[in-house]
Amino acid sequence: MRLIATFVFAPLLLASTSAATVIFDQIGGDISFTDNQNTYAGQHFVASGNQGFNIAAVEQFQVSGGMGSLTSVSAVIGMWNTAAPDINAISSWDVHVYSSLTEPDGNLIGNNSLVGVAPVSITAWGQNTSGNTNYLVTFDIAGMMDLADGDYWIGVVGHNDFAANGQIGVVGSTLMDGPSATPFGHQVNPNGGFAFGDWQQIDPAANLAYRIEATMIPAPGALAMLGLAGLITARRRRA
Length: 239
Fold this sequence. Notes:
With 239 residues, the protein is α+β, with helices and mostly antiparallel strands. It has one domain (17-201). Helix content is 16%, strand content 43%. Helix 1 packs across helix 3 (220-238). It is globular, with a radius of gyration of 21 Å. 38% of the residues are buried. The model is unreliable at 1-16 and 222-237 (pLDDT under 50).
């Protein structure tokens, strides 16, 4: 009986794993949702003595209906506080997913942090309120992060030299997605350099321009129902 159960359910498990799909999107298909919006600091300061200002601009998203294996993360990044900002001068990138706003340490590392992830594409994407070019930055993280059902916070942070290349952050968006019924962008600053505590909600309230894609694997209960449906169908065909 055990061999029969393994044979019947194994193909059902494979078939139930969906193709990658967008599970959260506050970027949209063009620049209209992010053009001429404010930019909210999200930066790992590389110079010694500035570590107190390490900050992430984060947005809440939800995984529901089973395990979510993230495949890609995109963010619209803005730059300011320098005469000639250079997106290519950012020395490295981190992709953080937090379960709570108090999770990250002083280097912004949490339980689900990918450090030193190279973007697969950087595309000019309108401009911010400083008149500087925004960039749509996308990371391929397929196979690197699996998340159970629940609410999480996404943050993309660049390692940047403030003295040479100013400040960077995530651009606001007029497009709203996710579990909150109101704009829900936050910032986390665990070392307290900005003097607002470990975290704050952006004021006035704002959405942050992130997009997340994932491959969803249904919860065990859903798989059991799929298996039962398959057996019933087979029995009907035999009848």
